[in-house]
Specification:
Elements: H1 7-14, H2 19-22, H3 31-38, E1 43-48, E2 54-59
Antiparallel strand pairs: 1-2
Length: 60
């Protein structure tokens, strides 16, 4: 199995993100997000700090 070692190698495999996927990034939840979350029995919210380190917190 191959291992992706860094961001540049990941870009070589997958290429840049699609413009539509970049537009899905939100700085806060809108009313549609809140309605979806309210109806979800389980949710994982992920965020990242300014250096790009991610954290995911499961709730349910």
């Amino acid at each position: 199995m191959d291992v992706v070692e860094d961001f540049e190698e990941l870009r070589e495999i997958y290429g840049p993100p699609n413009e539509r996927s970049l537009k899905k990034q939100l700085s806060r939840f809108d009313k549609h997000c809140r309605a979806f979350i309210a109806r979800s029995p389980f949710l994982v919210i992920a965020s990242s700090d300014p250096s790009g380190r991610c954290d995911a917190s499961p709730k349910g």
